[in-house]
């Protein structure tokens, strides 16, 4: 059960001055049409057909650490394959490592990561109970957006990870993760608020935590999306 205290923690950063009542109004229940059948979408990456028996998360991490399939391999300090539970019910997928992540080799450890950790906690999970990954395993210089050829070169790592993890729900964070899963032409504002599918998993796109740090007024919509994910997991 999500408590007011947890919700307050979710909204605390960047939402100073918003009263609880205003947050409650912003966090209205999803519209009925948003709770219906998964909407079919064009997919950028074929859904997982099942993991190869010989594959493992450790093998993927080792391959990424030595990978030179794109230019980012020569620039990284550490590859950031992702981390979390071996059999998570839910997987969060971001865009690419930033400076902090590149230094530590772990996903979402900067300011955006702190917000994501609070979002996960507000859902009733710890980071160790979910899996957190990115579309790219290496940091683009200057935190620029991933280039299409980099995403294409890296896509098999995330595809294999999702096949092994076999989550019930995937939450793409931001446009790049949503496009990886739902098609090159989608925008996050068009696909969020609805349930999509990727293989056997339900897909609930929402805003990237970095965007929410810049636009705290959008946190209400993000919380709607997380509530949708919780409903799909039977947690609400
Ligand atoms: S970003 Fe992906 S494809 Fe590019 S070098 Fe890193 S692991 Fe390899």
Number of strands: 6
User: Would you give the CATH topology?
Assistant: Uracil-DNA Glycosylase, subunit E
Q: Indicate the CATH class.
A: Alpha Beta
Cofactors and ligands present?
A: iron/sulfur cluster
CATH architecture: 3-Layer(aba) Sandwich
Gross morphology: globular
Separation of termini?
A: 7 Å
Low-confidence stretches: 13-42
Count of domain modules: 1
**What's the mean pLDDT score?**
87
Order of helices and strands: HHHEEHHEHEHHEEHH
By CATH's scheme, which homologous superfamily applies?
Uracil-DNA glycosylase-like domain
Alpha plus pi helix count: 10
Residue share in helix: 25-40%
Radius of gyration: 17 Å
Q: Could you say which structural class the secondary elements and strand pairing correspond to?
A: alpha/beta
Residue fraction in strands? 5-15%
Instruction: Provide the spatial order of strands within the biggest beta sheet.
Output: 1-3-2-4-6-5
Layout of strands and helices, then pairs:
Elements: H1 4-12, H2 20-26, H3 57-65, E1 83-84, E2 90-94, H4 99-104, H5 111-122, E3 131-134, H6 148-165, E4 169-172, H7 175-182, H8 188-191, E5 196-198, E6 201-203, H9 209-214, H10 219-232
Parallel strand pairs: 2-3, 2-4, 4-6
Antiparallel strand pairs: 1-3, 5-6
Helix pairs in contact: 1-5
The protein binds iron/sulfur cluster.
Iron/sulfur cluster (SF4) binds next to helix 6.
């Amino acid at each position: 059960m999500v408590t007011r205290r947890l919700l307050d923690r979710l909204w605390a950063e960047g939402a100073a001055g918003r009263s609880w009542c205003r947050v409650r109004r912003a966090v209205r229940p999803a519209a009925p049409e948003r709770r219906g059948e998964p909407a079919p979408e064009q997919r950028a990456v074929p859904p997982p057909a099942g993991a190869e028996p010989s594959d493992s998360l450790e093998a993927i991490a080792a391959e990424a650490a030595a990978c030179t399939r794109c230019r980012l391999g020569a620039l990284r300090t550490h590859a950031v394959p992702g981390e979390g539970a071996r059999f998570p019910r839910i997987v969060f997928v971001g865009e690419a490592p930033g400076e902090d992540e590149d230094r530590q080799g772990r996903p979402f450890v900067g300011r955006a990561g702190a917000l994501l950790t609070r979002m996960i906690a507000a859902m009733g999970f710890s980071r160790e109970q979910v899996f957190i990954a990115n579309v790219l395993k290496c940091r683009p210089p200057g935190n620029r957006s991933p280039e299409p050829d980099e995403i294409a070169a890296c896509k098999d790592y995330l595809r294999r990870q999702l096949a092994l993890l076999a989550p019930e729900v995937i939450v793409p964070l931001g446009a790049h993760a949503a496009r990886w899963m739902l098609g090159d032409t989608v925008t996050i504002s068009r696909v969020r608020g609805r349930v999509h599918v990727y293989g056997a998993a339900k897909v609930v796109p929402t805003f990237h935590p970095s965007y929410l740090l810049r636009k705290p007024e959008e946190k209400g919509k993000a919380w709607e999306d997380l509530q949708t994910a919780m409903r799909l997991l039977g947690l609400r």
